[in-house]
Amino acid sequence: MDKVLAGTVLFQGLPADAAERLYAVAECSDIPRGDVIFRQGEPGASMYVILHGKVRMTRPADPGRENLLTLLGPGDLFGELTLFDPAPRKATATAITDVEIAEFTASAMKEWLAAEPEAAWHFLRLLARRLRRVNDTLENLLFGDVPRRVARTLIDMAERFGDPVPDGVRVHHDLTQEQLAQHIGASRESVNKALSELAARSIVRLEQKTVVILDIERLKRKSGSSG
User: What Gene Ontology cellular-component terms does the record carry (predicted)?
Assistant: First the structure.
C-alpha cells in the first residue's frame, strides 16, 4: 500500500484487511497546477484524498471573482458527501499547486462499505471531525477580531502544512493576498496590517506566499489559545 495514502485519516484506524480492500479501489492521478478537479453544480460521483499539494474550494461571487471557502492539503478529504447525498457539488475544487490525488468513486465506496459495515463508523468519525472543524472556523469568524483570526489561521496552517526550519515553522500557503484575506474572512488591508504587526514583533517573518512562524507560543497567545 502507498505509504502516503496509508497515513491519511481515511485509512488510519481501519483494520489491515479492510484498508487493503479500500486501497484496491483507489485511482491515483496527477493534477497540474490551476486545473479544476470539479466545478460547483456538477453531479458528484467521487470523493478524493490529497496525497501531495494543495487544493482550494471556492464559490463564485461577483462577476469574475470567487470566494475562497477553504484550503486543503495532504491527507485532507473532499467531495465525501457525495457518498451519502448525490446532490450537485456545492463548490469548485481547483489545484493551486501540482497535486496528486486518490479518487474513490461513489459506486466503489458503496460496495466497500457494504462489505465492511463497521467501516461506516469510521466514516462517521471523519464527518464529525470535519463538522467540528467547520464549527471552529465559524466561531473564529463570528467571535474573533482580525488579529486573532489571523493568528488562529496561521496556527492551523502550521499544523497542517508547516515545515520545521531552524528558526521556526515555515508555512507556504500558496495563496495571493486577496485569497488569504478571503480565507481569514476579512479585508486584505486589515489582514496585511495584522500580519505586519506580527512581523514587527518578530512573531512571524513574511515571504512571498509564505509565513515563517518564529515564535509559536506568542502566536498562540495572540490567538487566544494557550495550548
Answer: cytosol
CATH homologous superfamily of 3-117 equals Jelly Rolls (2.60.120.10)
Integer Cα distance of 68 and 80 in angstroms: 19
Question: Residue 45: its pLDDT value, please?
Answer: 87
Please state the separation of Cα 72 from the chain's center in Å.
2
Convert the pLDDT of each residue in 128-155 to its tens digit.
777 777 767 666 665 568 998 899 899 9
* Separation between Cα atoms, residue 214 and residue 182, nearest integer Å: 24
Spell out the CATH class of 144-223. Answer: mainly alpha
